[in-house]
Amino acid sequence: MDLTGHTVVVTGASSGIGAAFARAFAARGLRVTGLVNNAGFGASGLFAESDPDRLLAMIALDVAAVVDLSHAFLPDLIAATPSGFLVNVASVLAYQATPRMAVYAAAKAFVLSFTEALWEEQRGSGLRVLCVSPSSTDTEFFDVADPDGTTRRPRAATPDHVVAAALAALDREDPPPSIVTDDRFVPVLARALPRRAMVRAVGAVQRRLSRPRD
Ligand SMILES: NC(=O)c1ccc[n+]([C@@H]2O[C@H](COP(=O)([O-])OP(=O)(O)OC[C@H]3O[C@@H](n4cnc5c(N)ncnc54)[C@H](OP(=O)(O)O)[C@@H]3O)[C@@H](O)[C@H]2O)c1
Fold it and tell me: Cβ distance 97 to 106 under 8 Å?
């Protein structure tokens, strides 16, 4: 994908994965004909004990803003083909219900489903549409999702690794609708196991990661 002389919009580029996207695009010498809906945050904790306003703010950013910006930019992105692209950042948690991150995982499941549907709708237009689902990545995400540090941090990839996987997928002749960076085990398991077994297994992992409160 030759992006020289074009322009890209990256949301949430102040840190983490968004900052890595911005650096990678700058290195390609481009401005923008692409949109990366990356801004997002999560919140750990039992749903019943969560602040409903924070959960609704999460849905506004992780879901509503993705729909809003995708719709607003779509005509320009299509006009920019073959350079035009739309990347929406979901999460590996999009592939399964996740106790203790129930709303976040559901929001990212929306992003995955929405983006894959757009991929199919836009196949004739030549617009590259891709959903990127990172697994655990070393950013400020966990400081925001769990400010009290009550949850143990899983092993994490680097933001540059996530972005390299995304750009490699976009560079393909016929990009797939979605990729998972690193943890491909969970999506495969989610397809193979009965839903009851999968959600109970994920619930058990989440309980283990959750440190007992003092
Ligand atoms: N890190 C992971 O393990 C992981 C795994 C899967 C998916 N993801 C997804 O990856 C994306 C990027 O997250 P990250 O890991 O890079 O985390 P991060 O370092 O916390 O970066 C999040 C970005 O989103 C912006 N943002 C947060 N709340 C916002 C709001 N209300 N309005 C506008 N911008 C807002 C932040 O801007 P400010 O700094 O100005 O708040 C920041 O630029 C998110 O969609 C996240 O859900 C992350």
Answer: yes
